[in-house]
């Protein structure tokens, strides 16, 4: 029986259980996560709260990254911008990262699925190869925004669905997957679509509009951040480089 | 300032407050509601529970309509099929109706908005004329399915957004409205899109696949079911026939 490919567009919805989950917060957490590991960071630790991120970073001797309201909290080494990631700064380091929506989605995914990866447009091919390499149902989880479905995440879910169907034309799509795929297929160029999202508008308000173009670079990176372990309330991800299937 | 037009695709999401709400359960509750009032029913009373529907119908001397699992509960006069609605049967009558998702969405909308209408593809033009005739923010509320966003409802929300923008090009869309509109614009013919939904698949399993084609008849009806009163846990709707704006 072909596998089921579900897409949960709204962070308010319950996740179906699955073998594999891909978590998407395309503007910007999962994009930046991919850039951090591609830039040579050894591992990435996600936490939900700022205080917890500070404690984890102290304990691990790690760099501290993330945002509240789009900007880095006081004392953080990095924000949540993929443009800040320079290999010279992150290579070999552990990075502790806290973001508003992406971390929450990853925590939920880790409950619903056996294995969890972080996906964005920049690593859509790597994410799909990784997910397809093992059998069983796949769920795509959008981080969303303020408890609602977000246009940018829905679009990236659609890109993942379309690419997955390219590998496995018989995969059974749920309504969410069909909806996301239709959005993606109608907009071959991600840039104007991402630019029209509420997330892009919020970035423009804090002077980070240029991040959106980076988030739109489909297949720029070959890395997939894969959940290696839950450590208390923190999620530790390591880089993997999925081969073609 | 141009008004805000929001579309809430998932029944799990909180509704923003608005002056006007349009509730959509295109397969089939709001389609059937429009057919009932177009067919001459005097009013329509929505209830969430079957037992409550029976009590309301007894008390009001009303016809009893609705579904559980797609089929009419025992002793009901009508199911939830627009094809069952014959003017000879419903003219002048009050109809009490209970459906799984549509009623719940209408109850939520009645809390969030001052005025509530029921919209589907069959009355998309009437619904938009009614909503646009008064100022203030508008929220489009999808009933969804099993707590998740549904493809058919998202498409109908997109039809409403596109039509609304035709009247008011400056209306400010949220991410949900943009997502729904993109789905609609990519599929000018509603039939294959609705047919691919989980709701259509469920209808086919109970022998009601032919309902879907009726739900796809855009602008077939000029009626808008408008919330007249909340009466305890029941919502009473009356027919209005919005003129052009």
Automatic annotation (TrEMBL), chains A, B:
<keyword id="KW-0460">Magnesium</keyword>
<dbReference type="Pfam" id="PF04029">
    <property type="entry name" value="2-ph_phosp"/>
</dbReference>
<comment type="similarity">
    <text>Belongs to the ComB family.</text>
</comment>
<dbReference type="GO" id="GO:0050545">
    <property type="term" value="F:sulfopyruvate decarboxylase activity"/>
</dbReference>
<dbReference type="InterPro" id="IPR005238">
    <property type="entry name" value="ComB-like"/>
</dbReference>
<protein>
    <recommendedName>
        <fullName>Probable 2-phosphosulfolactate phosphatase</fullName>
        <ecNumber>3.1.3.71</ecNumber>
    </recommendedName>
</protein>
<dbReference type="GO" id="GO:0000287">
    <property type="term" value="F:magnesium ion binding"/>
</dbReference>
<dbReference type="InterPro" id="IPR036702">
    <property type="entry name" value="ComB-like_sf"/>
</dbReference>
<keyword id="KW-0378">Hydrolase</keyword>
<dbReference type="GO" id="GO:0050532">
    <property type="term" value="F:2-phosphosulfolactate phosphatase activity"/>
</dbReference>
């Amino acid at each position: 029986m072909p596998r089921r490919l579900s897409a949960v567009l709204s962070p308010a919805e319950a996740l179906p259980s699955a073998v594999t989950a891909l978590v998407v917060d395309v503007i910007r957490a999962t994009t930046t996560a991919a850039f951090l590991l591609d830039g040579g960071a050894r591992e990435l630790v996600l936490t939900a709260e700022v205080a917890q991120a500070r404690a984890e970073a102290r304990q691990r001797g790690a760099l501290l990254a993330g945002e509240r309201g789009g900007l880095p909290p006081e004392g953080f080494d990095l924000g949540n911008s993929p443009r800040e990631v320079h290999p010279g700064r992150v290579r070999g380091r552990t990075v502790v990262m806290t973001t508003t929506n992406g971390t929450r989605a990853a925590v939920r995914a880790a409950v619903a699925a056996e294995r969890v990866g972080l996906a964005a447009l920049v690593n859509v091919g790597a994410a799909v190869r990784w997910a397809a390499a093992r059998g069983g149902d796949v769920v795509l989880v959008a981080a969303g925004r303020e408890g609602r479905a977000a246009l940018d995440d829905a679009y990236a879910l659609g890109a993942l669905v379309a690419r997955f169907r390219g590998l496995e034309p018989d995969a059974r799509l749920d309504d969410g997957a069909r909806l996301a795929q239709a959005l993606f297929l109608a907009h071959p160029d991600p840039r104007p679509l991402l630019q029209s999202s509420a997330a892009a508008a919020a970035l423009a308000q804090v002077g980070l509009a240029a991040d959106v173009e980076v988030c739109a670079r489909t297949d720029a990176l070959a890395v997939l951040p894969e959940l290696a372990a839950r450590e208390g309330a923190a999620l530790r991800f390591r880089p993997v480089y999925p081969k073609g299937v």
